[in-house]
Amino acid sequence: MGLKQKTADLKKRMREAIKGGGTKAIEKQKSIGKKTARERIISILDPKSFYEYDLFVEHAGKDFDMDKKYLPGDGVVTGTGTINGYPVCIYAQDFTVAGGSLGWMHAKKITKIMDHAMKLKVPLIGINDSGGARIQEGVNALAGYGEIFFRNTMASGVIPQISVILGPCAGGAVYSPALTDFVFVVDKVSKMFITGPEVIKTVLGEEISMEELGGARVHSETSGNAHFFAESEEACFDQIKQLMSFIPWNNEKKAEPFPKKAPKTRQYNIESIIPSDPRLPYDVREVIRAICDDSEFLEIQELFAPNIVIGFARVAGQSVGCIANQPMCMAGVLDVDSSDKAARFVRYCDSFNIPMLTLVDLPGYLPGIDQEHAGVIRHGAKLLYAYSEATVPKITVILRKAYGGGYIAMCSHHLRADFVFAWPTAEIAVMGPEGAANIIFRNEIKNAENPEEMRKHKIKEYKTKFANPYVAAAYGYIDAVIEPHDTRQFVMHALEISSVKSETRPAKKHGVPPF
Ligand code: HXC
User: Fold this and answer.
1) Domains of the chain and any CATH numbers
2) What distance lies between CA 98 and its chain's CA centroid?
3) Which residues line ligand 1 (CB under 6 A)?
């Protein structure tokens, strides 16, 4: 065969390979709002930037007549490309080929592209649409997952790892995403579970639909396994592109700077966001938008533990990780889920050289039997650990309440914040005035002629003494008490001055965080 014939032969082979599971399976995929594996990759990457590898890999299954089956590309598409000009390694499981199930060669294709990502130190994006371990391949399928999980763990904190769940993902297909940094889900399309409804029915006799068990909403609102929720695959891909603009390629780089733009939200009128009555709630995201460039804020885990807000923004063009108590939800209290959510994000920012801006307004950790029994001690400690361990620039602004453990946990100087600013409305105390007065003046209130009058008097006395930022400022725990409208300026300066910060912690193999 000459070059012409060989080229024609190559084209024929390629046509066969990219057919995936065939017309019928592709039609089924499309009928439920799903794109094919290659369409998904092309939609995420910059136009014409995708290069595919290992197209001709074949599966290695021998049992149960598998040796007679042709599974194009062994059910997974892998390659490299760019997003906003950023290099990325990418793979997408093809549900039309044996349900995207993971056999040994399928796993080898994934681990090969993971190894590339680590060697090149570029982000890895995995699009998961898979029935889990390929049952016919037995222990080889499990071995494949083990190899992926190990690599996910080694890559953690070195390169960004993004998982996109675009189908019914079961078993091993959900543990790899769980080990990665960000999990994206799409309403009605994404399903994640370890064991599906069938197994649950057989083993426990309980009946539940796939959507109720592990749909996109469940994982975004209840389990907290998902970080970004979208209504459609297209909206999900836009979210991925936006996220990529905030994070660096790897842990040795910083995120790309953007031109500095003043915030637009409410013409940066911070005073109009905060109610004059300290007991009234407000949306802390408005404060974030008022401080950050062009009011830009990409919220993460928006639907889970909304009593704390986390996400990326830019200040003077630089990426910043924002962590803020949300007074609009449970008064911004810290509980099991919000501690977990914030602690993980703090670790992410620290791993990838992203400075942190913490906004504080909380009455402390949530009291209650439920919380104590759910392990609020252990989960709450995660936040203390994460902030203490973090060495990136850490800027804290206390807006209103900073009570008790909440004051310490929300990146106080004691956990090595670089700068702590407080508004004149800040109240820094062991607990709220009402609770404190009831405890320390219990006898005086009980023995008073008019206990109610005495209680009011003592609350006022306590408020005058402690419900302000000046006691903490007198001890140097606050660097500056600032007017709210100066916040952006103070934060910009603090970030600029700490941009070359270099801080170390004691050398060790690793710590033992309260996982
Ligand atoms: C082999 C599989 C498969 C699997 C699906 N298929 N899952 N083949 N191994 N794990 C095949 C089906 O046989 C079918 O082939 C095709 O993929 C499409 O599957 P359907 O069932 O028709 O699709 P759907 O109705 O949409 O249901 C999708 C599903 C269901 C919910 C994912 O297929 C399912 O429950 N699969 C098993 C899930 C599971 O229990 N996995 C756990 C594996 S254990 P044909 O030829 O008919 O088109 C595991 C352990 C790892 O992963 C542990 C790590 C810690």
Assistant:
1) 3-244 (3.90.226.10), 270-426+468-497 (3.90.226.10), 432-467 (no CATH)
2) 31
3) 98-99, 101, 131-135, 142, 145, 168, 170-172, 175, 196
